[in-house]
Amino acid sequence: MNGLMTRYKESLAKTPKPIPYSEIKGRMDYRGLLAYAKSKGKKISELTQAEKKQFYSE
Q: Is the pTM of this model over 0.70?
């Protein structure tokens, strides 16, 4: 089990730190994005970057 724990700790060390909310510059309209995806009959993950970008503002 020691090998698994070692790999786990190495993985945690490589994981990037979370971005503080104060450093996030843009806004995403998730409600609009979800409604758009639902109207297209898709999941949000299936939308293209261009489609998602319509709901992002800086």
A: no
Q: Which residue has the tokens 């104060």?
A: 22
16-45 pLDDT tens trace: 999 898 888 889 999 999 999 999 999 999
DSSP characters over 20-47: PGGG---EE-HHHHHHHHHHHT--GGGS
CA distance 30 to 54: 11
Going from the C-alpha of 44 to that of each of 1, 26, 56, the distances in angstroms are: 38, 19, 14
